[in-house]
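Late entry, written up from scratch paper. The run itself happened at the end of the previous shift, but nothing got recorded in the book at the time, so transcribing now.
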Amino acid sequence: MSVNLAKGQQVSLRKGSGTSLAVVRMGLGWEAAPKRGLFGSRTRKIDLDASALLYAGKTPSDVVFFQHLESTDGSVRHTGDNLEGGSGDADDEAILVDLMHVPPHITQVVFTVSSYTGQTFAEVSRAHCRLMDETTGEELARYELAGGGPHTGQIMAKVFRDGEGGWTMQAIGAPAKGRTFQDLLPAIEPFL
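Output as recorded:
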């Protein structure tokens, strides 16, 4: 059963049996908001990019994004860059995290999205971030990006070690300015 998360809410990534999930998929989906013009509604292509930053405590250790599709240790993998979105409720970009193989020194994985082409989130509609059990295809949690705004980046969510051998997901939903994950690093710090 999926949990709809609000900003700041958390959900444990343990199965009902108490065991931890093995592989999760963080999916990102979006559409361009229709614009009203002289000739009716029209939309512009928007290139959002999903990234996963691996942290050891508060120190960045590795990153997975459209130009580096797999973490150095192989535990986190990006499925590829989508340059325009528009898949409706489906995911336009996804990042797989093999929780069982994330190195022990990595304490959290932060997921960001940035507008590579510089459009603001006021031009984006129906954006979502969702976490799925990759083994079963079950949606575990969903965070809908509400509102738009003048920002070009978003700190979407993070998964972190819960101290009991498992992982927890937290919806963050914090706006930021930037076209790349590097631009978003200062905005991530308060959520570590």
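The first strand starts at residue 3 and ends at 5.
(Scratch paper discarded after transcription.)
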